[in-house]
Design brief:
Blueprint: H1 2-31, H2 51-58, H3 76-85, H4 89-95, H5 107-116, H6 121-130, H7 139-149, H8 156-165, H9 167-171, H10 176-188, H11 193-202, H12 211-227, H13 236-243, H14 252-266, H15 270-278, H16 289-305, H17 310-319, H18 328-340, H19 345-350, H20 359-371, H21 376-379, H22 388-400
């Protein structure tokens, strides 16, 4: 009985201490509302509290199903600061709600840092609205990361423009050391500044990958080149990456499957496959294998129904691999549109780049050419594969002299 009583007393004391701690934290959070706004930015200073204590009080013990602690409330001072900055708090809450519950953030430091780099108040607000986690980065981290980016970009304004367009590219990773290693590694592949620039803006996750993951893909590509009899395996990864910026954020398993699919479906020799991968075939290596296979099967079926041979299908894909990037329904509509407009499949196979244009573009050009009685069998289809400016100039010339050939 004495033992039972002692256990009960200990439990009561523990709960009392716990309640007192919760009360203390609430008092500290409440103090945030009484602090005067800073004159320059109109922001409320961050209040100091015990991070460990707050995290313990806010965390939920998954194993105790009968008595779960409530979810940690949002940081009121952070919310007020964000509102004063013009941040879309509703958007921020939808995108990364956990950030708004953090006890310690650096929104003031972030604001000052980006402003010093030339970012406007509107741009800063937009960045935080779309990627709230940015407010968790320290000044030291920001300075170091900015310095690394400046190794690739010439001016601060370039970086601000990119971050404004894609905040995640700059703020997603907190590992500056890994970023530095990846920049050094990718530079060692003889990727030029322009290529690195495009990687950071188009596929920033490449630099968030572990260094080993990027090395694995590069080594895999070198092995592929060697297997196919390539003379410069060390140059092959550069050729592929420069044409397909997403390749490093895909798995080697996916890329291997796509290479095998292209080989087996088109009955390619080693030299043919190597030439395809070194060329524009690299553009389709990041597709999912199911999507690539489905599009190939659909194209083969459609071309066969239009009287094409296997050799025609192979020629079209080798000349314009991007046709496999186009969805099966869209590609079929484009082919039907061209055939209906008086163009033969033989002409399409010989000039497959015409399929790179949108269905609307193809339709509009066909209609304009039909109004002047343009003869595709006599003049060919080069007129369809031209820039808007060149097409309009050609139309003007043809309108004056309809019999003028290409």
């Amino acid at each position: 009985m004495v033992h039972s009583s002692t256990s009960s007393d200990i439990t009561v004391i523990f709960l009392s201490l716990k309640m007192a701690a919760v009360h203390a934290v609430r008092v500290l959070v409440g103090l945030c509302h009484s602090v005067a706004l800073q004159p320059r930015f109109g922001l409320i200073p961050v209040q100091l509290a015990s991070t460990c204590l707050l995290r313990r009080l806010c965390s939920t013990n998954a194993k105790r199903t009968e008595s779960k602690l409530p979810v940690c409330p949002e940081n009121e001072s952070l919310l007020e600061n964000l509102n004063l900055m013009g941040v879309d708090v509703k958007m921020a809450r939808q995108r990364q709600p956990g950030v708004l519950r953090k006890a310690f953030t650096n929104e003031q430091g972030l604001f000052q840092f980006l402003q010093s780099k030339g970012a406007s108040r509107k741009v800063i607000a937009g960045i935080i609205s779309r990627y709230p986690r940015a407010v968790t980065r320290s000044i030291e981290h920001l300075e170091q990361r900015w310095g690394l980016w400046r190794k690739i970009f010439k001016t601060d304004s370039e970086i601000v423009t990119i971050i404004d367009r894609s905040p995640e590219s700059f703020f997603r990773s907190s590992d500056n050391e890994n970023l530095e290693k990846n920049i050094a590694f990718l530079s060692s592949l003889e990727l030029n500044t322009k290529d690195l620039h495009r990687l950071l803006t188009t596929a920033p996750r490449t630099f968030s990958n572990s260094l080993q993951l990027n090395k694995r893909m590069v080594e895999f590509l070198e092995d592929v080149c060697a297997e196919l009899g390539g003379k410069n395996p060390e140059q092959f990864p550069k050729a592929v990456i420069s044409k397909n910026l997403y390749i490093l954020i895909r798995s080697t398993k996916r890329v291997r499957k796509n290479i095998d699919t292209l080989r087996s479906s088109l009955k390619l020799s080693d030299s043919e496959l190597l030439a395809l991968l070194e060329g524009h075939g690299a553009n389709i290596l990041d597709l999912s294998n199911e999507y690539l296979q489905r599009n190939f099967n659909s194209l083969r079926q459609k071309m066969t129904s239009l009287g094409c041979r296997k050799a025609d299908i192979k020629q079209l894909i080798l000349s314009c691999p991007s046709v496999l990037y186009t969805g099966q329904d869209t590609l079929c509509v484009k082919l039907d549109c061209l055939i209906k407009g008086g163009i033969t499949m033989k002409q399409i196979v010989e000039k497959p780049k015409v399929l790179d244009y949108s269905t609307q573009n193809i339709t509009e050009r066909l209609e304009k050419l039909q109004t002047i009685g343009y003869d595709f069998q006599k003049n060919g289809i080069n007129v369809l594969d031209s820039s808007k400016k060149r097409f309009l100039a050609k139309m003007e010339k043809l309108s004056v002299s309809p019999d003028d050939s290409m």
